[in-house]
Structures are given as C-alpha cells and as structure tokens.
Amino acid sequence: xxxxxxxxxxxxLDSVVAALAFTEYMKIHWDPNSIPVIIDExxxxxxxxxxxxxxxxxxxxxxxxxTTEDRVVLVDHNEAGQRLPGLNQNQIAGIFDxxxxxxxxxxxxxxxxxxxxxxxxxxxxxxxxxxxxxxxxLASLMLCAILSDTVxxxxxxxxxxxxxxxxxxxxxxxxxxxxxxxxxxxxxxSNISALSDEQVVLNDYKVxxxxxxxxxxxxxxxxxxxxxxxxxKQGLLxxxxxxxxQQGVDFIMLAITDILKINTKLLVSGVGEIELIQKAFGGTxxxxxxxxxxxxxxxxxxxxxxxxxxxxx
Length: 313
Known about the structure:
Blueprint: E1 3-6, H1 13-29, E2 34-38, H2 44-52, E3 59-60, E4 71-75, E5 92-97, E6 110-113, H3 119-130, H4 136-149, H5 160-172, H6 178-190, H7 197-202, E7 205-210, E8 213-222, H8 225-230, H9 233-247, E9 251-258, E10 263-267, H10 271-281, E11 289-291, H11 298-311
Parallel strand pairs: 1-2, 1-4, 2-3, 4-5, 5-6, 8-9
Antiparallel strand pairs: 7-8, 9-10, 10-11
Helix pairs in contact: 1-3, 1-4, 2-6, 3-4, 4-5, 10-11
C-alpha cells in the first residue's frame, strides 16, 4: 500500500511544493512511505523555480497508477472539481489546504485547513508545532511558493503567519534579498509569450460549484495585462466560449491580474457572465471587460463575490 500526496489539476507552484512539504510532514507524523506526486504538467513558473535551485520536481501520477489498496492525501485543494479525475473519494485519507471547504465524506479523515495565504504556510506551521527542522532545499521551495501565492505578500489573503514564514524560510535558505527573488518569480510567472490563448485561460483555473451552478474562473498573473486585453482579446473571447462548451459549465471568466499595478480586470464573453459580474462587483462591463480594482485573490476577493451574487438572485 502506498500513500500518494498531491495537489490539484493544473498545479501552480504552491500546489507542487505543498506535495513535497506535506510528504515530509507525513513521513514524521503519519506514514513514512508517503510519496509526493503531481497529477498534471508543471507550469513555467514552477519549472523555473525547480531549475533555479537545481531540484527535481515530483513525478507525474495517473489515476490508473493508484491501486485499490493505496491511499491519497490532497494538498492545496479539497473540492471534487479540482481533484484528479476518476479518483475514488473513499481512498482520500487526509486533506491539507487553505481554501474554503466543500466536503462530504462518509467516514472521518484527517483535515487541516487554515485561513492563510499559502498551503506552504500551513506546512510551515505544522513543522513548527512538531519542532521539526526544515532542510535548506525544501525551505527554498516553500519560500518561493508562499511569495507566489501571496503575490509577494501583497494579496488580500496574506496573514501575519505568511509574513513570519517568509522571513524564517529565507533565513533557513540563506536568501537575503527577498524582493529580488520575488521579482524573479513574477517574471517567470508573467511570461505569456509562449502560451496559447487556451493555455492563458486554463493555466490556472478553478471550477466553483455554487448552488448547483458551475463557474469556471481562470486567472493569469502577469505584467502584460494590456497586451492580453488588446492584442489577444478576440482570441481569448473565442476560447472562453469554446471552453465553456467543452467543460459544460454555466459561467466562465478570465481574471487578468497585473501583479505590479495590483489590479485585476475580468474578461467575459457572454450575456450571462456580464450580468453576473456586474451584480457581483458593481460597475459596468465595457467591451467585455470589468475593472475590479485591487482584488487579486480568486479565493478571497473573486469567488465570495460570485457566490454572493448567485446565492442572492
């Protein structure tokens, strides 16, 4: 029997590093034979960070690789729509996350969910509770993951725990210039030139299940917001429509976040989406775009507003 530890589909840096961090935690707390894996291809930011520190990312796992005797532990997600497709829910033995819970299990499992800015901050807290030292290589990755998920500690999801974790992990990793590292991560994250329109939309997306309605919200963090909203706008609108049909969702939108200007604009293609985001955020959609200001977190800023708009129809 094996215990696989992995994050969500379309994994971001926080998800991939969390698999490594929580595997280390599992080995000392629960199961010494835990194995970190990924369930989808790495994005360019994650590849950059692992290459920067000359480290090997987890291996790719397919659902058919999981036997009936194996167990799985989910990190950085919990909702069914973000899990490995085809995964048997009864094999889920634990969850470590920092997102809103949407769970329904027939038997008790171990669940650790805290309202912090990154799953790796949760891992750092658990290591602290056990007084377990974090090795330099893992600290380097965890530091980058927290900086990425909190947008350099500027996201509204950022907590005091995130700030303290960054300082302590930077010390362990012997990284003195946190600002320079953050800028490196931003540059790797925001390089969209090699991404197709479909990849821009699906590079980092979540399907929200709200009162029986499915809302696909993609997000791209970049320093090229205007390029996406001018030169590539028509292509993105077309892709939004096709993905909506392919995925069978009720609503779809793309949040284009400028990580330097601290601004997000929503791009939508349908009348239903226009009505939804205007109700959720106020303002008026102009040429398929709604500027929602400094709302940068899908988890804390965007999803709750969408949920409120759909719940109070």
